[in-house]
Design brief:
By secondary structure, the chain is mainly alpha-helical. 54% of the residues lie in helices and 4% in strands. It contains eleven helices and three strands; from the N terminus they run βββααααααααααα. The protein has helices at 25-28, 34-43, 49-61, 70-80, 85-94, 103-119, 124-137, 154-165, 171-185, 194-204, 212-234, and strands at 11-14, 17-20, 23-24. The mean pLDDT is 94.
């Protein structure tokens, strides 16, 4: 029996022609950024330049975080066994879950609850207090808030500033910032971490929470590649990796050149 026909609206392929959401791929090349292309393939339309730059910044924000994350340890452990690059990257992706990287999705859902209540007439401050109380009563940590290393995550500040510049900071950003303020007022301040900032921006850009973890994996893949290359180039196979024993010996702090 012949297979019943089905359709895809993402990419069309014909001899000598590749079109992503209707646009010729070769015409996109060199004319749109990777962030813009990611937005296009997921949302179906090209973003404006400001939102495209915001997408780029969001991907850069999660590109790497040293040897401290569990996914990086997974990647390094796979590399030290002699696993090929694709297996090492897969190990990193499989380590992205609720407590590492997965907070983006959970935070998006938390903020969605808050935005719905604000739109129903509650004040943003009251909603922030209510969300904090509900998560505490349920025995859950606030996803996207707090960090085991940073007391004031610099990535979050920059990303939200760029969102405001792009005109993309909406109700989700407002709820996230209200929670930060409520935490500070409670005497137990927690920063909005990069996962929370990305969650707020993605939500205000209209992305579905189900896609959230994919953004983290997409961004971090480049960092994982660098970690694999360094592991293979500098370390012996089958070593026991102690994250706490690692010291940094890369370039000294430097500034970006003027463009």
């Amino acid at each position: 029996m012949a297979e019943k026909g089905w359709a895809s609206a993402v990419t069309s392929i014909a001899p000598n022609e590749i079109r992503v959401r209707g646009y010729r791929l070769e015409e996109l090349m060199g004319r749109v950024s990777f962030g813009e292309a990611v937005y296009l393939v997921l949302r179906g339309e090209l973003p404006g330049a400001a939102v495209g730059s915001l997408m780029e910044a969001m991907l850069v924000a999660s590109i790497d975080h040293g040897v401290t994350p569990p996914s990086t340890l997974s990647v390094r452990n796979a590399a030290t066994t002699g696993a090929p690059l694709n297996a090492c990257i897969a190990a990193g992706a499989l380590a992205v879950n609720r407590h590492h990287g997965g907070a983006v999705e959970d935070c998006m859902r938390l903020l969605a609850r808050g935005v719905a209540r604000v739109q129903a007439g509650e004040s943003t401050g009251a909603v922030a207090q209510a969300l904090m109380a509900e998560e505490k009563a349920a025995g859950r940590r606030l996803p996207g808030f707090g960090h085991r290393i940073h007391t004031d995550d610099p990535r979050s500040h920059r990303l939200l500033a760029l969102a405001r510049e792009a005109g993309a900071a909406g109700p989700s950003v407002a709820v996230a910032e209200a929670i930060v303020a409520a935490l500070a007022a409670s005497g137990k301040p927690l920063p909005l971490n990069v996962d929370g900032a990305i969650a707020a921006v993605l939500a205000d850009l209209g992305f579905a929470p189900e896609l959230a973890n994919g953004f983290f994996i997409l961004a971090r893949t480049a960092g994982w590649m660098a970690q694999v290359a360094e592991e293979l180039g500098r370390e012996k196979p089958m070593r026991r990796i102690d994250q706490q024993a690692c010291t940094y010996d890369g370039p000294a702090p430097r500034e970006l050149p003027t463009r």
